[in-house]
Amino acid sequence: MGGSIGIALLNTLATGAATNYLVGKQPTPQVQAQAPLESYSTAYWWSAPFFAVGFVVTLALYRRGVPTGHPTEAAVQM
């Protein structure tokens, strides 16, 4: 679910960047070739902070050591 929302958000940002780039310009082949590059660049720059925040959250939630089982699971094995 989160991945789908993230992809939809980045797609929206990329589409908006391409549209904003094309506004007021003549549709020459060079301009039409540059518009997707602008959209990719915008999506990459917006995704970098998302990945950085995800990395920090992962580091904050990471637990060191060997995982222990639930107390009821230990009692069943004995």
UniProtKB/TrEMBL annotation:
Membrane-spanning parts: 43-62
Alphabetic keyword roster: Membrane, Transmembrane, Transmembrane helix
Domain of life: Bacteria
Name under which the protein is recorded: Putative membrane protein
Organism encoding this protein: Streptomyces davaonensis (strain DSM 101723 / JCM 4913 / KCC S-0913 / 768)
